[in-house]
Every structure is written in structure tokens, then in C-alpha cells.
Amino acid sequence: MNTYYSELGRILDGRIPLRKEGYFILHEGNQISYDTSVPADVAIVTATDFTHALVEGCKCILNTFSQRSENEQVYAFNLYADEQYSFYIYMNTNSSFLKTLEEYEYTEPTEINALKYNPGDFSFQYWDTHMGEYGEVIKQFELIGDRASGDLSEFKRPDAIEGAPIVAFEIGIIKAGFNLLAVNAIQQLIAEDAFNVLNKTDQFIAYVATGNDLLDYSVTMRKTIDSAIFYEVFPDIRESDQSYLEQLESYQKLNVSESLDYWMEAVHDSYASTFPYSLCKSEYEIFKQLERFGNPLAQESLKRLEGLVGKKELESEEYYEIDYYIECLYFSDSLTEAQKEKCRELAAIIQNNKALDNAYASPLWSLITNEPLLK
């Protein structure tokens, strides 16, 4: 299990506010600094500014493509925002798809549909250099994002860098929010009828992809694709959704402890053959199913965490369980003061346990301070 995709699901569903306090600053020579104060004498890119850049950059591409002879039977527009902080725009037409299909020689309907909606096989691909003046914002974002991994304390202050500052980005854009802002951009483009410059098919879809198929099909794509068209375009997802609900019928009768155990196979791996991944559901769906228990979920998760984080030696699968129980806390009702104190105690134990990386303590501190977790 990779709980990062559950955290990303929380962001995409608006459960986590994007953090606005703090800025990554791009300096001459592509150097990066971090500051908690509002930078002076430098342009600042807010979440609103970034969404605007994506919207207008996509419009540049749409308008350019609309003048091409290939602008016929366009069936998909994909804004791809991957984990390496890169943005790509993919489009495809029916005629281009049929040419690609001839090369692959697929005959099975499932294979054909997968090929049809695989952005990597789309014939029309664009990036920041095709976005006009707005592409500069995206390019700057990618330069910062490429260097923004690691703890915030590792970054120099602006006055410790020789190169002059060029631009500052709100930290929430870089650390957590760019996928959400991409969704917001597509929603805005749809609301503004920006795709009307295309000669579209009746089943035209515009959507965002994160690079994680399970999260995309279960959450991200549904943010911008009408549900009826979604099931028409992806009939296999309709079937898997129904199977998922049927398999959960017996699960609804379990208590909180039994429910935590129910998902343990999925905790220990993320293979496609394991439920719920086998039915195209991401890690996020697991925690959404657990949140019905409210605060008792926090109580049971904290009890189990206490039995794990104090161990001087842990089995490999126990690291996944620690991540699992910590993520459960984000789907519980508001923690009591006693539970927050327990989080504080567990975070301190983790920081003093050589068997555990300090990164395991960060989400517990985030729960105490009620600040968005930044990874």
C-alpha cells in the first residue's frame, strides 16, 4: 500500500486545504530557497494564478489545434500532471486512433479501449512551450518541483543564496496542490465552453491524469467527465464498480477492528490481483470505507500504532501497517485532546526509535497542529 495516493485523494476531494503560508523561491541559476514570510520585490504565483496559467495555456493549444486540418472527431483531451512535476497535454482523434490500432493489431474490446484512451499513444502531444506566455509559469513550476523534495528545513533562506530571486510559488502548489489545480483548470475550461473550438465526437471527454491509473479511474477522471458518458466510454469500469459494491455487502456488518483487518491484504501489497485494486480502486477508497466508524477508528488505530512504533526491530510488512494506521487517523472524527496527546507521544517515540525514519512522525505532528501534511 502506498498511502500517498490516499493523501492525494483527500486533496482532490477537498478534504485538505492547500497550504498558503510559505513560499518556494526560484533564483537565478535555478537555485531554490524556502521562506515562511511573503517574499518582497519578486512576483508571487498563487494557487489562483497557477490555475489561470493552466487554463490560458490550454486555450492557446486548443486554439492552435483548432486551425489544423486534423481537427476532426476529437474524442479526448488529457491534462497530464505527473509525480515528477511535469505537465503534458494530450489529444486524439478517431482517425489517428484507427491508424494506431492498425499498428497494434488488437482485436479484444478491452485491449482496444485501453489503447484508445492511453495518452501515451495519442497522436497530438503538447507541453509548456506550446502554452504561449503562460508556459513560462509552468516551466518555472517544473524547475522548482524538480528540486523541492526533502524536508523544508533542508532548504536555504533567500538571503543565503547569491542568485537574485525570479519568482515565488505558494508552497501548497508545489507540495500538494498541483493535481487539484489541474482538475480545477479542466473544470473551468468546460464551464467556459473552451473545448467548443474542437470538432468533437458525442463522447468527447476532457480529464486530468496523475499517472496512477487506480486513482485516475476511481477519482480524478470522474471530477470532469459526466457519469453517464464515463460509463459509456469505460463500460468495464461500470462492471468493476458494481462488483466492488457487491463485494462490500458483507463488509458493512463488520466492527471497526474487523474492518481494519479486512483490508490487511491490500495494506501489504498493491498488486492488481488484490482487492480492491483488482476492481480499479485506489488506496483512497479503503479509507473512505473506514471513515464510517468515526472516532472509534482513531481509538483502535492509535492502540495498534502504540504496539508497533516502540519495537526495536520491525518486520517489513509492519512498516506498511504503521502508514495504514496513521492514515486512518485522517478519516476519523476530530481527535480528542487525549488522542492528540497520544499522537504527540507516538511521534516522540518514533523520533527516538532507530528502526523508524523520522518521516513517520510528520503526519502525526500534522494531526496535532491541524496543518496540511506536506510531502
Structural account:
With 375 residues, the protein is α/β, with parallel strands linked by helices. The chain contains 16 helices and eight strands. The chain has helices spanning 4-12, 47-66, 94-104, 109-116, 135-145, 171-191, 213-220, 227-233, 235-247, 256-262, 264-268, 283-290, 295-309, 316-329, 337-351, 362-369; strands spanning 23-27, 31-35, 43-45, 74-81, 87-93, 124-126, 165-170, 200-209. The strands form two sheets. It has a four-stranded mixed β-sheet with strand order 2-1-7-3. A hairpin with a 3-residue loop joins strand 1 and strand 2. The longest helix has 21 residues, at 171-191. It is globular. The mean pLDDT is 94.
In N-to-C order, the SSE pattern is HEEEHEEHHEHEHEHHHHHHHHHH
Strand order of the largest sheet: 2-1-7-3
Output the radius of gyration.
23 Å
Q: What gap, in angstroms, lies between the N and C termini?
A: 17 Å
| Number of helices, where a helix is a run of at least 4 consecutive DSSP H or I residues | 16
Globular, elongated, flat, extended or rod-shaped: what is the shape?
Answer: globular
Content of β-strand: 5-15%
Task: Kindly name the structural category.
Answer: alpha/beta
